[in-house]
Amino acid sequence: MIRVQQEDFDIGAEVARLKAGRSDIGAIVAFVGVVRDQAGAVEEMTLEHYPGMTEAELQRIEAEASASWPLQASLIVHRYGRLRPSDNIVLVVTASEHREAAFRAAEFLMDYLKTCAPFWKHESGPQGSRWVEANVPDDASTAR
Amino acid sequence: MSTRLLYFAWVKEKTGIAAEEVELPREVTTVAELIIWLKARGPEFDHAFACSNVIRAAIDRTHVRHDTKIGTAHEIAFFPPVTGG
């Protein structure tokens, strides 16, 4: 399941909902991406996205993970709008029988999300504001 | 047939618009040709697409390369490399 929203998410509640009524899940991995203040340089981060394409890309990425690993459930929640340091940005949860598939699928989802999902970060702080430039190692990591 | 063009992040800031409907001339058949056509529309577009090799494109909400044929696209978007996650 995927969700794109302005509101914050509750990791505990999301994990509880994902495993509710199921007894076949043996491993759950949850990853949370958080806004950093970068030693005071960032006071606010605004996340812009492409409504419609964002959802389509997240669904495509999730389907690719489900086809590659034996997952019993997965969830991607990505926020947009104005965020502040220590705010949550993204949540990825993967559930499988054994931990290896859950770990690998979670890492895959984050790597692909960072290179394919149409989000753009704009940071502002005491030094002014700027669009965050794409991270080259992230782009390269999808090639492995 | 009109085509909807969308611009995001600094591409939107530089062009000064987020979305528009345009009638594409017949000779514009690929994304790369569309960029050349857009650059000729005025200084804002020329500036926005100056480093056109950096700009990513999507046709009908799917990532495409610049050599992709536009075909019967309804929506074409231009944006910088993505930075989500």
Q: Can you describe this structure?
A:
The complex is a heterodimer of chains A (144) and B (85). Chain A is α+β, with helices and mostly antiparallel strands and 144 residues long. Chain A has a single domain (2-133), classed as Molybdopterin biosynthesis MoaE subunit (Aldehyde Oxidoreductase, domain 3, Alpha-Beta Complex). In chain A, 34% of the residues lie in helices and 35% in strands. Chain A has helices at 11-19, 53-68, 99-116, 136-141, and strands at residues 2-5, 27-34, 44-49, 71-79, 81-83, 88-96, 119-125, 128-131. Chain A has a four-stranded mixed β-sheet, sandwiched between helices. A four-stranded antiparallel β-sheet of chain A has the order 5-3-7-8, with no helix packed on it. In chain A, strand 7 and strand 8 (128-131) form a beta hairpin. Chain B is α+β, with helices and mostly antiparallel strands and 85 residues long. Chain B has a five-stranded mixed β-sheet. Chain B starts with a strand and ends in a 6-residue tail after the last strand. Chain B has a single domain, classed as Ubiquitin-like (UB roll), CATH 3.10.20. Chain B contains three helices and five strands; from the N terminus they run E-H-E-H-H-E-E-E. The chains are: A alpha+beta (144), B alpha+beta (85). At the A-B interface, strand 3, helix 3 and strand 7 of A face loops of B.
